[in-house]
C-alpha cells in the first residue's frame, strides 16, 4: 500500500546526519592569519567565511608590523575537522594572505580576551558585584552612585563565567574585544 514504508528497526538517514555518519564532531579552532595591511583585505578574508557559510565565533585584527605593512587576523571558528582543513586551505590561497596557523593543533598557545562589563545596582547587589569582581580579578574602570564598569581579561570561558555571575546583580551591557592568541615558547 505505501511504497515508502520503512522496515521495522531500520533507521532513517538525512543529509543533516552526515557528521554522525562519519563520526566527526564539531570543533572550535583558533586561526592566526598574517595578511597585508591594506584596504579590502579583511573584507576578502571575512567574505571567504560568509560566502561558504562558515561561522566566526570571534574576530580580532591589528597591524603587527608597521614597517612590513602586515596585520594579524585572529579568527575563532567552528566546524568538523574536514571543514577546518578546508578553511585553512582556502585562506592560504588568498593573495593578501602570507601565513595561516591553526593555534589549536600546532602546540600550546595562550588565548586572552578583554571585556568591559557594566553593572547597575545599589545596596547589597552593589556590594556583591564588588566581591565577585575581586574573585575574578576584574578592575573597576568607572564608577557612579548607580553603576560600575568592570574591566576583565582572561580566557573566554572566564569572561563568560563573570558575565553570568553579574547577570542577577544588574548586568546592563557587555563589550568584548574578541580573542587574541599567540603560540607559547620559541
TrEMBL record:
<comment type="function">
    <text>Catalyzes the conversion of 2 pyruvate molecules into acetolactate in the first common step of the biosynthetic pathway of the branched-amino acids such as leucine, isoleucine, and valine.</text>
</comment>
<dbReference type="InterPro" id="IPR045865">
    <property type="entry name" value="ACT-like_dom_sf"/>
</dbReference>
<dbReference type="GO" id="GO:0009099">
    <property type="term" value="P:L-valine biosynthetic process"/>
</dbReference>
<protein>
    <recommendedName>
        <fullName>Acetolactate synthase small subunit</fullName>
        <ecNumber>2.2.1.6</ecNumber>
    </recommendedName>
</protein>
<comment type="pathway">
    <text>Amino-acid biosynthesis; L-valine biosynthesis; L-valine from pyruvate: step 1/4.</text>
</comment>
<comment type="similarity">
    <text>Belongs to the acetolactate synthase small subunit family.</text>
</comment>
<dbReference type="GO" id="GO:0003984">
    <property type="term" value="F:acetolactate synthase activity"/>
</dbReference>
<dbReference type="InterPro" id="IPR004789">
    <property type="entry name" value="Acetalactate_synth_ssu"/>
</dbReference>
<feature type="domain" description="ACT">
    <location>
        <begin position="30"/>
        <end position="105"/>
    </location>
</feature>
<dbReference type="InterPro" id="IPR019455">
    <property type="entry name" value="Acetolactate_synth_ssu_C"/>
</dbReference>
<dbReference type="InterPro" id="IPR054480">
    <property type="entry name" value="AHAS_small-like_ACT"/>
</dbReference>
<dbReference type="GO" id="GO:1990610">
    <property type="term" value="F:acetolactate synthase regulator activity"/>
</dbReference>
<dbReference type="GO" id="GO:0005829">
    <property type="term" value="C:cytosol"/>
</dbReference>
<comment type="subunit">
    <text>Dimer of large and small chains.</text>
</comment>
<dbReference type="Pfam" id="PF10369">
    <property type="entry name" value="ALS_ss_C"/>
</dbReference>
<keyword id="KW-0028">Amino-acid biosynthesis</keyword>
<keyword id="KW-0100">Branched-chain amino acid biosynthesis</keyword>
<dbReference type="Pfam" id="PF22629">
    <property type="entry name" value="ACT_AHAS_ss"/>
</dbReference>
<dbReference type="InterPro" id="IPR039557">
    <property type="entry name" value="AHAS_ACT"/>
</dbReference>
<dbReference type="InterPro" id="IPR027271">
    <property type="entry name" value="Acetolactate_synth/TF_NikR_C"/>
</dbReference>
<dbReference type="GO" id="GO:0009097">
    <property type="term" value="P:isoleucine biosynthetic process"/>
</dbReference>
<dbReference type="InterPro" id="IPR002912">
    <property type="entry name" value="ACT_dom"/>
</dbReference>
<keyword id="KW-0808">Transferase</keyword>
<comment type="pathway">
    <text>Amino-acid biosynthesis; L-isoleucine biosynthesis; L-isoleucine from 2-oxobutanoate: step 1/4.</text>
</comment>
Amino acid at each position: 500500500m505505501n511504497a515508502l514504508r520503512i522496515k521495522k528497526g531500520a533507521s532513517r538517514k538525512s543529509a543533516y546526519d552526515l557528521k554522525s555518519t562519519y563520526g566527526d564532531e564539531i570543533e572550535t579552532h583558533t586561526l592566526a592569519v598574517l595578511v597585508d595591511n591594506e584596504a579590502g583585505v579583511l573584507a576578502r578574508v571575512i567574505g571567504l567565511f560568509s560566502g561558504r557559510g562558515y561561522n566566526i565565533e570571534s574576530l580580532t585584527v591589528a597591524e603587527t608590523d608597521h614597517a612590513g605593512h602586515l596585520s594579524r587576523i585572529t579568527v575563532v571558528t567552528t566546524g568538523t575537522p574536514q571543514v577546518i582543513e578546508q578553511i585553512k586551505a582556502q585562506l592560504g590561497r588568498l593573495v593578501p594572505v602570507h601565513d595561516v596557523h591553526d593555534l589549536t593543533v600546532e602546540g600550546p598557545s595562550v588565548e586572552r580576551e578583554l571585556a568591559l562589563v557594566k553593572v547597575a545596582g545599589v545596596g547589597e547587589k552593589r556590594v556583591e558585584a564588588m566581591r565577585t569582581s575581586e574573585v575574578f580579578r576584574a578592575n573597576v574602570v568607572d564608577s557612579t552612585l548607580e553603576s560600575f564598569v568592570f574591566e576583565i581579561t582572561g580566557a573566554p570561558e572566564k569572561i563568560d563565567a563573570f558575565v553570568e555571575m553579574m547577570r542577577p546583580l544588574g548586568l546592563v551591557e557587555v563589550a568584548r574585544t574578541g580573542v587574541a592568541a599567540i603560540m607559547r615558547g620559541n
